[in-house]
Amino acid sequence: MHTVFASGQYNFLYAALVYNVNAYADARLTDYNLHWLPSCYFDGGYIYDYGISTSAIATGLDGSCAREVPALDLSVTLTWLGSASIQVDVSIANNESVNSAPLTPEAPEGQGIGTATFRYPFTAKASDPDNDPLYYMFDWGDSQQSDWLGPFAPGDDGLDTHRWTMYGTYDVKARVQDTAGAESAWSPVTTIHLAKPGNANGDASVNVGDAVFIISYIFREGPAPPYPNAADANCDTKVNVGDAVYIISYIFRQGPAPGCN
User: Fold this and answer.
1) CA dihedral 161, 167, 169, 173 (to 10 degrees)
2) Are 197 and 166 in contact (CB under 8 A)?
3) Which range marks the domain in which residue 119 is found?
4) Does residue 246 sit within a domain?
């Protein structure tokens, strides 16, 4: 052991228990349940080797050095007090970083009303005690969830869009995950109410009245459609005569249904 220590290849401390010379050493041997003498215990017994060849000792030291250990700083000071007494002072500093889970996001922000089959954006805002970048996930209330989106830089809102295929009312919520894998709880919900595509007048059905409503809105300064995009029957991002014609074709000529495919 001393030969390896003196070589300078390894930075370590060791203690030798010479059982047939020192009664205290002999008493300690029972703690190790030895089956062979001489034997070497490395890292407090993490690695055990019998024999004292320099190659066996080097193998034990290499195995100990390769082991992943916590980020601890250990300082050991030995002071000779005389009369066969040594004072041992040990100081340990824990440098392990402790990750904190992100805070629960605020309720997502987005449109409160719209039309099914059209795509709408939503944003969510959250923060992390460790100021880590965040991944966002949205639950759209229709049995669909987004993937983990991001990472977004600290302070940036998470953003995604969604298209609901059926009209109705849906609750949108979000949660976040930091880069260490810790997740927040789900946010409060934001509700979106979606009309049936082509239901320009908001009466929950698509019929000739919707075509008349569109014509009145365009040419007679009639009221605006109560649901955004509902009057855009052909999904071309404009409300014009073409949408009224599209609805008439759907009702009387078995044309395609209003909305976006």
Assistant:
1) -20
2) no
3) 109-195
4) no
